[in-house]
Amino acid sequence: MSDQTFSLLDPFSSVDLGLADTADGIKQWAIANRGIIQPIKQVFNDLIIGIDTALNAVPPIIMLCLIVLIAWQSAGRRVAAVVAVAMFALGFLAPNAWSLAMTTLAIVVSAVILCFVIGLPLGIVAGKNDRMEAAMRPVLDTMQTIPAFVYLVPVVMLIGIGNVSGVIVTIIFALPPTNPADITWHPRREPKRCRSSARVWRLTPADPVQG
Questions:
Q1: To the nearest 10°, the Cα dihedral for 55, 56, 58, 64?
Q2: Whole-angstrom distance, CA of residue 128 vs CA of residue 185
């Protein structure tokens, strides 16, 4: 409570819950204990550096051709042509633009790999355990709803500014979609999923279903 006299007309200035002091204490603790998370940071950093080194070892023209080929096979010729023009323009922006682009790609690839390594087992466990699913769903929904920049502040306090912080924030935001997919498509939940589809299409037990 504040030293000021409580007033019904202005209760906010006379009540102090101490939230600011608590938040400041958490911040100071995070800054003072950065060393605890350094081993995890080192693992993430080694993965990023390894992928970045591999991508930058490939000559730019060969990498450009591979990217255009992937775009062609996955999205068609028009998208491949747009990708080719964009990548050529990127390469001519600055002498180090291509290497920076490969570093960005390495960060994205690292985040995707770590998302699957962490999210796939959690999704399988949640698919087999109803209690685990019930505990995970609100957490995953919160992770996906809150903007990624909100996670950036505590991550930077614990790890510092750098590529690893970007990867961790990306993982937090991109991890939830991997889990609901595993939970929904787990064989144990197949009848429930079929019933949900039947309700959507307003089917009855008497309606024939063709495979």
A1: 80
A2: 11
Give the span between the Cα atoms of 168 and 45, in whole angstroms.
11
Is residue 1 a part of any domain in this protein? no
Residue-wise over 68-96: b if at least 16 C-beta within 10 A, else e? Answer: beebbeeeeeeebeebbeebeeebeeeee
- Direct distance between the N- and C-terminal alpha carbons of the chain, in angstroms, rounded to an integer: 68
- Return the closest-CA partner of residue 64 out of 49, 48, 51, 83: 83
Residue with tokens 């959507």: 200
114 found inside a domain: yes
* Interacting residues of 4 by C-beta distance below 8 A, sequence separation 6+: 13, 14
8 Å CB contact between 27 and 19: no
User: Of how many residues is the chain composed?
Assistant: 211
User: In terms of residue numbers, what domain contains 48?
Assistant: 37-57+95-185
pTM above 0.70, yes or no: no
Mean pLDDT on 58-79: 91
49 located within any domain: yes
Q: CA nearest 137: which of 94, 183, 193?
A: 183
Asked, for residue 140, whether it belongs to a domain, the answer is yes
Q: Is the pLDDT confidence value at 46 over 70? A: yes
